[in-house]
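quick one, 459 residues, struct below
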Amino acid sequence: MSILIKNGRIVTADADYSADIFIEGETISTIGKNLKVNADTVIDATGKLVLPGGIDPHVHLDMPFMGTFSSDNYETGTRAALFGGTTMVIDFILQKQGNSLQSALEEWRGRSNGNCVGDYSFHMAVTDFNEETKKEIQQFIEQEGITSFKTFMAYKGALMIDDRQMIGLMEEVKKQGGLINVHATNGDMIDYLVQKHRNEGNLSPLYHYLSQPEVTEAEAAERFADMANYTGCPGYIVHLTCEGALNAVRNATKRNQNLFVETCIQYLIIDASLYERADGAKWVMSPPLREKKDQATLWAGINQGLVQVVATDHCPFMWEQKLMGKDDFSKIPNGHPAIENRMELLFSEGVNKGKISLNKFVEVSSTNAAKIFGMFPQKGTIAVGSDADLILIDPKETHQLSAKTHHMNVDYSGYEGWECTGKIKTVLLRGTIAINNNECKVSKGFGKFIKRKKVKQNI
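---
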């Protein structure tokens, strides 16, 4: 099969020009003006932007949490991602304490294999680092193509590891050519504040936010930066939300340290005032939403090059699941649906409102993630030989986000009624039209597991 995309405005992280794209099989064959080729399908992209498919490196599909599972499985979640212009996701495997990394991988494969509509990969979350676990790191990087390992500095008694384990893991991951992702919040302090608020009878969703003040994130980010600097291990802070934490990263650059930083779309555009609403549980996530001054810091951090990636931490739960914590904020499943909304919200709020350029949009929604996580130039750009993962956006079309029209398997939207300018019209995944005019053209099993290369310190 061949496809010719004509008359489009092509935008990558470092270019912006008008040309045609000729696709043969799964990859881009030729890029040029007024291409004279015979194609099985011709797409007229007049008036559209042609961009690399989005990469969301932080999602949780079919994830066990607090006695339930996130409501999007690998089929519904990756399909919803495609509708929103995201052609590739990276999910998190969670090791059970006392078990091997390999057993965790097999458990997650049991849910993902043959079910994904879009392309995917995994990070390996290490919750029990010991001599046996240490022996598995090389195999994961060199044989499985899983090159990133997540650690939690929070969720005490469940996922959290101590600094001794962190240092040991960093040294081994650095030796083998991988990268450490970190959930950087101070778990001991959060645990103390949760119990304090519960003991005082303060049980509403607002106290989820008040149990994780900015200092809990700023302190952990700085501690992680220091450990990464000491070991020389490449480090990536997931879902950074606030000024204090970004200042810890800024301080690290003064000693010539390079840390990768991800924020999420929700932290850029909504804030903690939502926790005072009757339905505040919809926005209970960790870290919590912050203040408007933190939004300003994060947008600035993107333009300063301190924040390289905008992801989602997509981890949806049905409203009935959220109501498990109706009488106690600490029992509300943590998570937020956004896998389908990220690209359009970032385009509408970022590009259309002049906060970021089109090139920066591509960089933080696709290219940087591909580079950091060892998939570039197969993914994350528009170039001859790259996978034909492409999205066509009508930059002027306005539409409203709503649970009534989204494709995520969740019965509410965190952005109900939000007006967006910029609509994803067509999505190609590896040279196949996957989404066209709000219709999915591919089925579960079409998505491929993408093996990744060893990590580079710089992008």
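The longest helix spans residues 214-231.
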